[in-house]
Amino acid sequence: MKSLGLFSQISAIIISVVIGVFFVQPIVTEIGEIQTDISSYQDERQKVQVVNASLAEDVTFLQGISPLDRQKLATYMPRVVDDIAVLRDIEFMVAEAGLVYNSLAYEGIEQEVLSFVEDVDSVLGDNVPTKHSFSVDVTGGYTDIKTFMRILEQNNYPLEIHALDIAALETGLMSASMTLVTYSDDAVLLSNNLDI
After folding, report:
1. Nearest CA-CA partner of 91 in 138, 55, 56
2. Residue 176 confidence (pLDDT) above 90
């Protein structure tokens, strides 16, 4: 009878170890994985909250722009860009810098798509600025190209350099090919399919 008691105790220990290994340990492992997932979720949520707070600050800043400043921006940004006048001004800037232009062309109009404007009033109201691209290819010395870049900053249009490729020529001069972009507030004219 005593041997049956010892056998039942050993059997109970073996069954409890088997239950622990095959049932409790996987559950503990699963709980550990869930806790790790919860921790990573909380970390990611904190990152999202930081980004959302930053976006909220930007939206507050945009909404805080005074009507007078909006009007000033609308005054600075031309309603319509005269591509011939811009090309002429670029040609004058090239000559003033002492460069020779190889080509100067108007590349056309591209309507900007700004997805963030849907929730926020644009600085210019509902109109999204229209992008006008110009390609310029000039030849000259390094200092002349730097002078041209400096002159570009002080012009009648908010010209931006969107692409620039500078190469040394065998003659000791340099060639600079660039894409210049300016903006206008003529989205209303574009939506009415009028030629600008």
Report:
1. 138
2. yes
The proportion of the chain whose per-residue pLDDT surpasses 90, expressed as a percent, equals 31
Q: Which helix (H) or strand (E) holds 131?
A: strand 130-140
We report the CATH number of the domain holding residue 112 as: 3.30.70.60
Residue 73 lies in a domain: no
Does residue 180 have a pLDDT over 50? yes
Same domain, 60 and 96: no
**What is the H or E stretch that residue 137 is in?**
strand 130-140
Q: Which domain holds residue 17?
A: 1-64
Same domain? 154 vs 83: yes
* β-strand pairing of 100-111 with 130-140: antiparallel
Q: Give the residue among 111, 118, 164 at the shortest CA–CA distance from 137.
A: 164
pTM for this predicted structure: 0.53
Q: Does the pLDDT value for residue 124 go beyond 60?
A: no
